[in-house]
Design goal:
Layout lengths: L5 H7 L8 E2 L3 E5 L7 E7 L15 H17 L6 E4 L15 E5 L8
Antiparallel strand pairs: 1-2, 2-3, 3-5, 4-5
């Protein structure tokens, strides 16, 4: 845990939030500034800033984040209509919180990326 990290503070209970799901590796909350009707964040419990900081023997964390995203999309009712998974990395990507997290976006038609 990083003492100044907002996600670490949410997980520890220092900042109140509704944690929708939690397991031994990650947890899920709603984004407080949603850009889609369903906008959830899958966040590792261990403070990791960027994907390239995940050690080779720790990629079960990344797999669990994606598995959790699939499950939470189904619970939100967006798995059949479609959803987007996004991981922003570093400043030019728009990463705001320096703690690895996976955005799950859906609930409406999303614009084409490429």
């Amino acid at each position: 845990m990083e003492p100044e990290c907002i996600f670490c503070k949410i997980y520890s209970g220092e900042i109140p939030s509704d944690i929708l799901y939690s397991d031994s590796l990650c947890f899920v909350v709603r984004d407080i500034q949603p850009v889609a009707p369903s906008h959830l964040l899958v966040i590792p419990i261990r403070h990791v800033t960027f994907l390239d900081e995940v050690e080779d023997d720790e990629f079960d964390l990344v797999a669990q984040m994606f598995k959790t995203a699939v499950s939470i999309a189904a619970e939100e009712g967006i798995s059949q209509s479609g959803y987007r998974l996004v991981v922003n990395q570093r400043d030019n990507s728009g990463q705001v919180v320096p703690h690895l997290h996976l955005h799950v976006l859906g609930g409406d038609r999303l614009g084409v990326i490429g």
